[in-house]
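We were asked to recover a plausible sequence for a given structure. The inputs and outputs are reproduced exactly as logged, with field labels preserved.

PROBLEM: sequence recovery
POSITIONS: 647
GIVEN STRUCTURE:
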């Protein structure tokens, strides 16, 4: 570990370096140690359908999946893993298989004799969840731990005998009543849930273990992994880490949310294997995971960043950095979005349509959507028409000098020029700043300037860490200037831009850093896509809510309805409900728990049967599937959260 203070969850906050864990062998595939970050996914077929599961596994493997997980909810499914494994091996595929176990220790004990790894969930392996608060003394809690040990040790001993690896996978949505009663619905509760099982393994001298801390809330997920590492170090443990945001969803939202959670940890060298959980076919998850991971192959060659001696950021809980208010930037305002239009040949009112602004010619009026950006940067292109009343224009400094008499126009000034004392706006000045610009003289000047907003930038290959270093320098000098996070990208696909920018900016926002974002994207997709990506990053980091959030699990063999089709139906009818969180769960494994993080829940509880939740409370049970979406809408309406969609 480096000498950087308050930094027990990674090797360094400024130098990229993988956090070193022990090697665990899953069949012939090594995880942790000096191995590359492994990619994995999970089948969505019925485990009893051997042929379908084999065919889907092959599609996943050929897409690059290095570890295939298959659900085994009961004894018969666990026994059929042998047929699946035999068929894959017969067809020349040696990829290790993982049995996913919930509620059924006897299925785990069967699977552990067949496949290379079993995944158990501490929240439901030996506990039942009834959402009850239980008062424990130290003695009665120890009795519960003894009960868990008796239930769990047989599996540990089988795994040890057969050389089978194990993932102890905590899910935020399925913490037991026992853990919730003792530790609360917290990252600490997630960590302790895993540690209870880990300590049993250690006493049995069994160490072929991988750990995960999954949550649909990216902040909770990041904090839990960091805290897990700290706790493991305290107990001389160094088990590999499996990263994932559970129930991330579909499309751009699922990709951005996954990148914010997984990418934040990868940036600090954390993670040995990755699964991106999308409500899509599993083979489509692998390219996304690969793109996230590929950035770190040569990351250790980055330009050096000065070591942090005093880290004021609290890594295990969310604390928003305090900043002063400059117009609608900083203070208690939500983070702003600046959109880049500087590369346009010409800017007209139609140029703003993709940015959430629509001009009605008959009414001579701008209509402003919930995903309308706050500022546009036009560089040297002059706007010669009336702009929407909520929008501001940012020009390059010399062009601003010619336009400074116009309303709501602001200059982008280079830090050097600003320090040398150029003419400035009386309202707001955007100061384009790199880490190399941060000097005592510069901080002293911006500290006293009530019009100054920093637009921070980086060309460092380890740019997130360099930008974090800027925030730390400001915080340690008690400088509360508002800061917009800016990054430039070129020649990316829309998906690459989503994943890279969500990682780079989401990692800072997750730690409470940043009063806005500015994606400067050249040849990276449409203006609308880039604008949506900006809003998606803020939504995924939970710093600005602009649309409905769907907590939607990926399909698996336990799923009781077509998740992709159902999610599309629900989204089509509810995607105008700004700020409402809807959980769409294929079965009860994580469903009830994740309802605690959603406003409404739609959970499969039988073939063709749906149960609806309001938060974690059951409202209606076993509704026929063809009536359930309408019933969900009526539930939302009855609690006052429904608004009619506008045409």
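RECOVERED SEQUENCE:
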């Amino acid at each position: 570990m480096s000498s950087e203070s308050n930094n027990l969850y990674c090797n360094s906050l400024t130098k990229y370096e993988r956090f070193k864990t022990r090697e665990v062998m899953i069949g012939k595939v090594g995880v942790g140690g000096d191995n590359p970050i492994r990619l994995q996914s999970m089948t969505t077929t019925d485990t009893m359908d051997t042929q379908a599961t084999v065919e889907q596994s092959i599609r996943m493997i050929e897409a690059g999946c290095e570890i295939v997980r298959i659900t085994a909810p009961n004894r018969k499914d666990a026994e059929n893993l042998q047929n699946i494994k035999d068929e894959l091996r017969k067809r020349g595929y040696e990829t290790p298989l993982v049995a996913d176990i919930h509620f059924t220790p006897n299925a785990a004990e069967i699977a552990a004799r067949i496949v290379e790894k079993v995944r158990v969930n501490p929240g439901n392996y030996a506990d039942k969840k009834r959402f009850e608060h239980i008062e424990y003394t130290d003695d009665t809690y120890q009795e519960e731990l003894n009960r868990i040990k008796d239930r769990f040790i047989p599996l540990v001993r089988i795994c040890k005998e057969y050389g089978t690896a194990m993932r102890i996978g905590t899910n935020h949505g399925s913490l037991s009543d026992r853990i919730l009663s003792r530790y609360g619905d917290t990252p600490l509760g997630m960590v302790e849930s895993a540690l209870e099982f880990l300590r049993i393994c250690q006493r049995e001298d069994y160490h072929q273990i991988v750990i995960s801390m999954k949550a649909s809330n990216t902040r909770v997920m990041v904090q839990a992994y960091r805290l897990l590492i700290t706790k493991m170090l305290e107990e001389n443990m160094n088990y590999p880490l499996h990263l994932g945001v559970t129930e991330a969803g579909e499309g751009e939202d699922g990709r951005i949310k996954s990148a914010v959670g997984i990418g934040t940890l990868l940036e600090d060298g954390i993670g040995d294997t990755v699964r991106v959980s999308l409500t899509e076919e599993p083979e489509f998850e692998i390219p996304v995971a690969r793109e996230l991971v590929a950035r770190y192959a040569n990351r250790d060659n980055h330009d050096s960043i000065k070591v942090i001696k005093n880290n004021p950021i609290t890594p295990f809980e969310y604390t928003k950095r305090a900043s002063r208010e400059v117009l609608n930037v900083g203070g208690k305002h939500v983070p702003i979005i600046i959109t880049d239009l500087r590369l346009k040949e010409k800017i007209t009112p139609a140029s703003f349509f993709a940015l959430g602004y629509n001009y009605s010619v008959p009414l001579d009026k701008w209509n402003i959507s919930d995903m309308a950006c706050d500022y546009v940067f036009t560089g040297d292109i002059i706007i010669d028409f009336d702009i929407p009343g909520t929008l501001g224009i940012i020009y390059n400094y010399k062009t601003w000098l010619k336009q400074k008499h116009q309303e709501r126009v602001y200059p982008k000034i280079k830090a050097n020029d600003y320090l040398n004392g150029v003419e400035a706006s009386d309202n707001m000045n955007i100061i384009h700043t790199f880490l190399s610009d941060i000097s005592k003289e510069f901080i002293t000047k911006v500290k006293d300037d009530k019009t100054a907003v920093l637009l921070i930038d980086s060309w460092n290959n380890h740019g997130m860490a360099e930008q974090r270093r800027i925030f730390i320098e400001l915080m340690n000098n008690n400088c509360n200037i508002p800061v917009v996070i800016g990054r430039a990208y070129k020649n990316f696909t829309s998906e690459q831009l989503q994943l890279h920018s969500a990682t780079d900016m989401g990692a800072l926002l997750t730690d409470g850093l940043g009063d806005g974002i500015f994606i400067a994207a050249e040849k990276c997709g449409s203006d609308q896509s880039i604008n949506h990506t900006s809003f998606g990053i803020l939504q995924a980091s939970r710093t600005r809510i602009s649309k409905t959030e769907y907590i939607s699990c990926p399909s698996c063999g336990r799923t009781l309805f077509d998740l992709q089709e159902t999610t599309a139906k629900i989204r089509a009818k509810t995607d105008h409900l700004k700020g409402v969180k809807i959980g769409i769960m294929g079965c009860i494994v994580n469903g009830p728990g994740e309802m605690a993080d959603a406003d409404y829940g739609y959970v499969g509880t039988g073939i063709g049967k749906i149960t609806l939740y309001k938060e974690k409370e059951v409202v209606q049970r076993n509704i026929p599937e063809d009536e359930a979406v309408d019933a969900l809408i009526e539930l939302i309406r009855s609690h006052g959260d429904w608004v009619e969609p506008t045409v």
